[in-house]
Amino acid sequence: MLHQAPSIYQSPKCFVTYGMMGHVDPRQIPSRGKPWTAISDLDFIHKVDLIIPQDIYEAVAQKMTEREAPAYYRVVMTLGQVLETKFLTQYIKLGNIMMLSEGKTTIGNLFTLREGNLDLYLDRETYERAGLEGKPYGIKGGRGSKPRWTMSVDLLQDLNAKQMTSSPRPSTDTGIHQIPLRIPSTILAQGDREALEYSATDMYEWLSLVRLESPRVVAGDAIDSYLSRYAPPGADSTADQVQVFTNCPSQSWFALSGTTFSRNILGGCNELSFLRPPESSGEFLMWETKSQD
Description:
The chain is an alpha+beta fold. Among the domains are: 79-154, no CATH class; 174-289, no CATH class. The chain has helices spanning 36-40, 57-66, 79-82, 85-93, 124-130, 185-190, 193-211, and strands at residues 99-100, 110-114, 117-123, 135-137, 148-154, 174-177, 239-242, 254-259, 271-276, 285-289. It is elongated. InterPro entries: RNase_P_Rpp40.
């Protein structure tokens, strides 16, 4: 059996329910049975109309003005910002917030947040990249409609996650060939971009090998040139003792690198490396390696 694709010309359906409602305690509003389940199923309400007789209008209006009106804000923020610790704790776990992102459940990506439940409506590409467990959403096998998935995450639930941490692992007494860690003044004076790129590449390669604790930068390394032709650029004849983890004085050089977790199936990641040359007054070098998501 073929299902027709959703169309704006399809007529909406109306279901009528007749039932009896018992006494309602305002201090303990029912949550089961109709009409309460139908009311609670309404999540993001745009407008509320109340029609009452004129003779009770004043009493009802006074009650409504005494109640605190809900606040509405239009914000520009990513889903990652919503899940940050401060916002998650203050507005979701301790507060009472509802959020509806721009978009539609049938086209593009959309997320909703209600009573601590995060619901995601994703296209196929985003769903596969998210790596979360979900289920198909919408009409199956519909012509002209692309496959979509939905998933739900309870942000109020204790995930019982095991706390993990890491400790610094200093590498000391690594005798290496120290290379000049400054861009030659002649290159800067002449504005030679090509020479600057070569010099910066040499320094970045040397710093990367130091981080990897490669024997290629260790003093006295005598590997066969057939296996490796690397030689530290402009290396001093004497070996310096380098401590990768250290508290650097203001006039000392240091290099700091940060690498992200893998972002794609190929293991690509982003990396930033920062170098402060020796005896520099605000001078630095920075390398940014960005992966294609």
